[in-house]
Amino acid sequence: MEENQMNKLWYLSQISIFEELTSEEMKEIDLLNTIRHFNWVPKDALVQTPDNTLKGFSFVKEGKLKVYKLNDSGKQFTLGILTHGNMFGEINSFSFGTKDVYIEAMEPTLVCSISEAQFDRLMISRPSLALKFLKAVSERLMEREEQLEQIAFNGLRERVIHLLTMLSSKFGIIVDGYAIIDLPLTHQEIANMLGVTREAVSGVMSGLVKDGVIKTSRKSVQVDAAMLTRSK
Asked: How far apart are CA 166 and CA 2, in angstroms?
């Protein structure tokens, strides 16, 4: 097998939606010429804007992308962070809720893409993958519902704790009883994710540090690992 084809199969096997397939199934999918484009996106570069929405589906192979909207005054509201194996995009049969949004690279990020026609061929050839896509869409919707519930029923302290706990579960590295969130997480970025002011977040974060719930340093947040256990 040629080296570039071997590399393509390796890329496919690393994307979470394909992780349960056998090597033979991976080869069959590769013959469909499924994933057609690999693109390194530099840090802070825009992958998509509301005026230039990507067609088809894309996957994050390496790195991290931030999904956000801007209001009329230019204030940013972060909708989510995409990392290894996460998908985004819109086609007629599936949607990941990333239409009319900004998608920006938080660090150098490798993005792979698949067209709608290729996606349809893939679903026809592998119905089991369709179920995995449905599960991924369902999980995305559940996360959005949780965000709305937090806004509706909880105060800012509880919302900050919920956000940091969620980020710790996804991006945390446990060291000495604390989960270090592997993201450049400033008070302003947390405020963007919650749709509140930086000053309000700073006040809550100071209280959480005093109570021993978190530790902070420049662009770094560590969450008491016991919080992750209690949240499950």
From this structure: 42
Residues in the chain: 232
CA distance 190 to 197: 9
- Phi, psi for 141 (deg, rounded to 5): -65, -40
Per-residue pLDDT tens for 62-95? 899 999 999 888 888 998 898 887 888 887 767 7
What is the C-alpha separation between 92 and 56, in angstroms, rounded?
Answer: 9
Using only C-alpha atoms, what is the Rg of the chain?
Answer: 19
**pTM of the full structure:** 0.75
- Is it the case that residue 49 has pLDDT exceeding 60? yes
d(CA 104, CA 196): 21
Q: 170-205 burial, b for 16+ CB within 10 Å, e for fewer? A: ebbeeeeebbbbebebbbebbbbbbebeeeebeebb
C-beta separation of 129 from 19 below 8 A: no
Per-residue pLDDT reduced to its tens digit, 172-191: 899 888 999 988 889 999 99
